[in-house]
Design a protein that fits this description.
mainly alpha; 62% helix; 0% strand; globular
């Protein structure tokens, strides 16, 4: 990805995260799949049950498998 485009997109995401925080919600900027898995594992306590309402993105990125094996 073009570095200039990456900077613009990051700024947009930061603005979105700030808007979420103003509404008492959390948002995160994750740059790669390894960091995504680490953040998810940080957010979900061990022993938790996780439910998914049909997100193809979660399946396509391997996130469901990551969560299934660690919790």
């Amino acid at each position: 990805m073009d570095n200039n485009l990456k900077v613009v997109l990051k700024k947009r995401v930061e603005k979105t995260i700030k808007s979420l925080e103003n509404r008492n919600m959390n948002g995160y900027y994750i740059e790669n799949i390894e960091d995504l898995y680490a953040k998810i594992n940080d957010l979900i306590p061990d022993g938790s049950t996780v439910s998914v309402g049909g997100s193809m993105t979660l399946f396509e990125t391997g996130t469901i498998e990551s969560v299934s094996y660690t919790h």
